[in-house]
Amino acid sequence: MQGNNRELNLRKVAIIGCGFVGASSAFSLMQSGLFSEMVLLDADQKKAEGEAMDISHGIPFAKAMQIYAGNYDDIVDAAMIIITAGANQKPDETRLDLVHKNVAIFQSIIPEIAKRNYQGILLIVSNPVDILTYVALKLSGFPENRVIGSGTVLDTARLKYKLGQHLGVDSRSVHAFIIGEHGDSEIAAWSSANVSGVPLDLFCEMRGHFSHEEATEEIANTVKNMAYDIIARKHATYYGIAMSVKRICEAIVRDEKFILPISSMMHGEYGIDGISLSMPAIVGKDGIETKVPISLDEEEKEKLIESANTLKRVLETIQL
């Protein structure tokens, strides 16, 4: 076990994996002003160096920041390590199809971080994110509050965007969550959805929409398939997740105690145990503070258990 006597630098972030998602996240974070130092790591060192150089050239238009390519020893004192490394999802693949490739990649990354006695927060973004959050927890041995998956933060943003369009209101006034797997078994939690405190069905009727069941089913399916639609057109999705990464980092760095549907370990909530799943939680400087028990109807609870079981079946095929 290598010792780590370096104090965490709260203004420092590291990103492991400089593909589309990693580079877009780095660019988003450079513009955010949240950090003053950013280290990029990639299996291809030249790629990390190139991204660091390219993004650095925008600093005169943003806030002072040091951006460079580095190694595992360079990131021990980062407040947050963001892991986007992994194989890309192909047009004919589900997120769960990626699992064995990306678990193998995590088996080379996470022990390198753990053996340096890292004390900061791990943010897992690689897919399938719920499975890989669990894998990162088990391989690192870190406390559960410090290992966060980006979960359904992006799916939830997509849901708010579509509802905002449907209802003709600012999507920031929409309060609704996608929960469960970040993937094909995800659930739109309609029973707790509202627009500025007004129950969703009532607000829909105010705006002249009365076919609630048809509309919600269509919107939920559109949201679930959005990644596939984007991948079919441009072979990858990265801007939306980059903004989601920035939002999670904001909640942590600013200790906002903001409620986000991140992926974390379940311990009996809704009868689910021993799996990481995307559920609303209060997020602040120490990572996950506590889960938020949103109200679900019986059908939503059943679907959530089904989603958890889908992930558990995948976990059974993994050797850790």
Q: How is the CATH topology of the largest domain named?
A: L-2-Hydroxyisocaproate Dehydrogenase, Chain A, domain 2
Kindly state the mean pLDDT as a whole number? Answer: 94
Distance between the termini: 20 Å
Describe the main β-sheet briefly: 6 strands, parallel
CATH architecture of the largest domain: Alpha-Beta Complex
Strand composition percent? 15-25%
- Major sheet strand order: 3-2-1-4-5-6
What would you give as the CATH superfamily of the largest domain?
Lactate dehydrogenase/glycoside hydrolase, family 4, C-terminal
User: For this structure, what is the CATH class of the largest domain?
Assistant: Alpha Beta
Q: What's the overall geometry?
A: globular
Over all CA atoms, what is the radius of gyration? 19 Å
| Estimated helix fraction | 40-55%
What class would the helix/strand composition place it in? alpha/beta
What is the succession of H and E elements? EHEHEEHEHEHEEEEEHHHEEEH
Tally the structural domains.
2
Strand elements, count: 14
Number of helices: 9
Write the layout of secondary structure elements.
Layout: E1 9-16, H1 20-32, E2 37-41, H2 45-56, E3 66-69, E4 78-83, H3 99-114, E5 121-124, H4 129-140, E6 147-149, H5 153-167, E7 174-175, E8 178-179, E9 187-188, E10 194-195, E11 198-199, H6 200-206, H7 212-234, H8 239-253, E12 258-267, E13 273-284, E14 287-291, H9 298-315
Parallel strand pairs: 1-2, 1-4, 2-3, 4-5, 5-6
Antiparallel strand pairs: 7-10, 8-9, 10-11, 12-13, 13-14
